[in-house]
Structures are given as structure tokens and as C-alpha cells.
Amino acid sequence: MAVETPSRGRSRISNLGDTFEIVIPSRENSFIMMVFICASLGGWTFGEFSAIRDILPWVLGNLKTNRIPFFLLFWLVGWTAVGVHMIWSSAWNLVGKEKIVLSGDRLILSNKALTFGATKAYALNEARKFRLYVPLDTKSTSTSFWKTPFDNTFSFPRGKLAFDYGMKTVRFAFGIDEPEARYLLSLLKQRGVDVPAA
């Protein structure tokens, strides 16, 4: 029986003078997962265009019949919202990257797939108590394929690392395991961020 090779982690680290950058790519996907993505998006596209085709005659001027397809309109709005989330989740899982950048007096957190996503900057002198994040609710750590760093809010609620910023907690470093998170935390500490003693 072959012995498993120890993981070297997924993050890539660059130290360019005053700029320290950590890049965490999304998890690699198997061929089966790729087929699943294509099949799911194909099914969603078929349903979307079928609903639009049924609604189109009403949109183009069939108002005199007073037969407004309320149910179909409601279904189309919901189906479109689901599809947008599926497309973003698929893009994230295929080509998404999280960047953690220390540059001067700023911490920059970025989650993007291609050109889509969000970037936020924080003042390092206001960022306190960098630490491993231990959720009270273990269900929040589930690793469904459709999970992304943006689940539940439009901020960065998920991640293995966290810090306090004013009266809120900011989480980052999504999709890595605890040993790698500890390693990244030690690197951030070396760069002077506020990491309390264990």
C-alpha cells in the first residue's frame, strides 16, 4: 500500500518588498465534477429559456387578454436568482482565487473569479486579534460544492482565519484546512499583525 504524501498546502506566497501576498486558489475539481457543473448549468439554461419563451407573447402585447402569468413570472424570478448563484459558484470553484495582501498600512482581502467578485481594504492599525476562527455552529463549516466565500451575506463571512475590526469580526482564508491556516497565521504574525499569544 502506497503511503500518502504530506500536503504542502494550496496557498502561494509572495514577498515583494513592502507587499506581502497570499493567494489561495479554489479547490481542484475532478472530471466528474466538471461534468456535473455542465449538466447543472445546462438544465438551468433549458428551464430559463423555456419560461422566457412562454412569457414572451404576454410581454409583446397580449395584455388585452388580462391573463397575466403571475405564477410563471414568480417562478422565473426565483429560477433566475438560483441560476445566478449557480453560475457564480461554478466560476468560483473552477477559477476562483482569494488574495490576502499586506501593503503598507493596509490589509486587502479579495475574492474573485475572472473579473467578478469583491475587494475590501482594512486599516491594519484598526485590525485586532488575528486568530483561527472556531465556529460555535459546526454546520457552518460544511463544504458543499455550491459554497463560496460570499454565502449568507455579501461580505466575507466564511474562512478559517478572523480578526476584529471595530465592533465586527471579519473572516478570511476560505477553503483551507486548519494546519495551513495556522501556518498562514504565523506568517502574518511575522509581518507585524496583532496575533495574541496562545
Report on the structure:
With 198 residues, this protein is of the alpha+beta class. It has 2 domains: 12-27 and 97-190, no CATH class; 31-94. The chain has helices at 31-59, 70-95, 178-190; strands at 12-16, 19-25, 96-103, 106-113, 116-123, 127-132, 161-165, 168-172. Strands 1-2-3-4-5 form a 5-stranded antiparallel β-sheet. A 3-stranded antiparallel β-sheet has the order 6-7-8, covered by helices on one side. Helix 1 runs antiparallel to helix 2. The longest helix has 29 residues, at 31-59. It is elongated, with a radius of gyration of 22 Å.
Could you list some keywords that capture this structure?
elongated, single chain, alpha+beta, 198 residues, 8 strands, 2 domains, 5-stranded antiparallel β-sheet
Tell me the layout of helices and strands.
Elements: E1 12-16, E2 19-25, H1 31-59, H2 70-95, E3 96-103, E4 106-113, E5 116-123, E6 127-132, E7 161-165, E8 168-172, H3 178-190
Antiparallel strand pairs: 1-2, 2-3, 3-4, 4-5, 6-7, 7-8
Helix pairs in contact: 1-2
